[in-house]
Amino acid sequence: MDQKMDFNAPHSMGTTIIGVTYNGGVVLGADSRTSTGVYVANRASDKITKLTDNVYVCRSGSAADSQVVSDYVTYFLHQHTIQLGQPATVKVAANLVRLLSYNNKNLLETGLIVGGWDKYEGGQIFGVPLGGTIVQQPFAIGGSGSSYLYGFFDQAWKEGMTKDEAEDLVKKAVSLAIARDGASGGVVRTVIINSDGVTRNFYPGDQLPLWHEELEPHNSLLDILGAPEPMNI
Amino acid sequence: MASNSDLVSDTQRTLYPYVTGTSVVALKYKDGILMAADMGGSYGSTLRYKSIDRLKPIGKHSLLGASGEISDFQEILHYLDELILYDNMWDDGNSLGPKEVHNYLTQVMYNRRNKFNPLWNALVLGGVKNGQKYLGMVNMIGINFEDNHVATGLGNHLTRPILRDEWHENLTFEEGVKLLEKCMRVLLYRDRSAVNKIQISKITEEGATLFPPYSLKTYWEFTAFKNPTVGAEGSW
């Protein structure tokens, strides 16, 4: 590649992020690639960030912008929880995210998916795209990789999935997006939130299905050729 | 996105819209106002959201329909919530009618335009108070007017001509709905941001009614559609 590598390009999380509700809670999923121009600055980032014990956010777009918004919201929610005397609701968390995104829409470039569980409304997912619109959805997709998933979700999404069905759907979807989006890659991380608490999972490439034109990975050609060949000079 | 002048002087400049709603169409009929909009929220050319509510009742006497940037519409709803709350707190038996709400919105929109920080919307405000029907429109540059039928966006070009031909005083509810559906069907055929999930709302002296979302049937059975290049192979 004769391209000049711009190491000063802003860190952008190309990204694929997903949030899905199921009967009992939510499953959040994301890839793990952070790029600086064409260079992959971090191949194992964690884009699913805790806002409170029961609410997490998936971050996409500018890494810096999404981190600073998460940090502010975590700070405000912490104070709010102390004052309220009980866990914050998902709606409040999502609206705080919206306020920051909307009121700073000139400065920020970040699309977020807020997901969590509270005792009043159960599992909820809120999308907060560029511009600061807030929209509650049964499932949400975001980031550059999501372009490749609209058709997939139109076909594969169903109401009332179980926890395992939902997590499988998320894993499959992120993995499909990674296959086609250069700005998404690395591992698939999922976070499941329900009344029992939070479960973090980690799926490297070898634990994900293979798609069209993808081959089984091997350590070496030599393994494929079978019997070890001595060197012939 | 962020430029040096934004960070230094803290001024905001004209923005661009991200998640947008397309046309709203409304007309006066015998008992009040009928308004229609689809439930789409487009993100550029992607039809990203398909269940966005773009028609909202305001107070007891008005209906607001919005096209343009959805986040700005959501902010306008917050402002109106406060306006109606303060109106109720007076507890004086009076309530803001559609004319007053339209005027308030016009002030907000024009002032924001003057500060080069517009709310990127075109709004339709309709309602009935004391038997008086009112239907008006205001957009992001502060242009506002009232009429017997209004539309935003592509609706202005595609549906106003139909309404000019077919609208008359004292339409029944059924005639009004059929007319709006004719307009929405044309938009579905010819507006690429249209989504086939529409909401119709009505407002009368009794109050606002929001009908459930539904889809329109479309017609494709013209012979010319089935065989468009008969007699002219290679044409489109």
In short:
The complex is a heterodimer of chains A (233) and B (236). By secondary structure, chain A is α+β, with helices and mostly antiparallel strands. Chain A has helices at residues 63-84, 90-103, 150-156, 163-180, 221-225; strands at residues 11-13, 17-22, 25-30, 34-36, 39-42, 48-52, 55-62, 110-118, 122-128, 135-137, 139-142, 188-194, 197-203.
Q: What is the H-and-E element order of chain B?
A: HEEEEEEEHHEEEEHHHEEH
Secondary-structure element order of chain A, as H and E? EEEEEEEHHEEEEHHEEH
Question: If interface size is counted as residues with C-beta under 8 Å from the partner's C-beta, which chains form the largest one?
Answer: A-B, 19 and 22 residues
Shape of chain A: globular
Which range does the strand content of chain B fall in? Answer: 25-35%
The poorly predicted ranges of chain A are none
Alpha-carbon Rg of chain B, integer: 20 Å
Q: Could you please describe the fold and organization of this structure?
A:
The complex is a heterodimer of chains A (233) and B (236). Chain A has 233 residues and is of the alpha+beta class. Chain A is built from five helices and 13 strands. Chain A has helices spanning 63-84, 90-103, 150-156, 163-180, 221-225, and strands spanning 11-13, 17-22, 25-30, 34-36, 39-42, 48-52, 55-62, 110-118, 122-128, 135-137, 139-142, 188-194, 197-203. In chain A, a hairpin with a 2-residue loop joins strand 12 (188-194) and strand 13. The longest helix of chain A has 22 residues, at 63-84. Chain A is globular and about 75 Å long. Chain B has seven helices and 13 strands. Chain B has helices at residues 4-9, 70-89, 98-114, 154-158, 160-166, 173-190, 223-226; strands spanning 19-21, 24-29, 32-38, 41-43, 46-49, 55-58, 62-69, 121-129, 132-139, 144-146, 149-151, 198-204, 207-210. In chain B, strands 1, 4, 5, 6, 7, 8, 9 and 10 form an eight-stranded antiparallel sheet that branches. In chain B, strands 11-2-3-12-13 form a five-stranded antiparallel sheet. Chain B is α+β, with helices and mostly antiparallel strands and 236 residues long. Chain B has one domain (18-218): Glutamine Phosphoribosylpyrophosphate, subunit 1, domain 1 (4-Layer Sandwich), CATH 3.60.20.10. Helix content of chain B is 33%, strand content 29%. In chain B, a hairpin with a 2-residue loop joins strand 4 and strand 5 (46-49). Chains A and B meet through helix 2 of A and strand 5 and helix 2 of B. Chain A: It is found in: Cytoplasm; Nucleus. Chain A: Keywords: Cytoplasm, Hydrolase, Nucleus, Protease, Proteasome, Threonine protease. Chain A: InterPro entries: Ntn_hydrolases_N (IPR029055), Pept_T1A_subB (IPR000243), Proteasome_bsu_CS (IPR016050), Proteasome_sua/b (IPR001353), Proteasome_suB-type (IPR023333). Chain A: It catalyses: Cleavage of peptide bonds with very broad specificity. Chain A: Belongs to the peptidase T1B family.
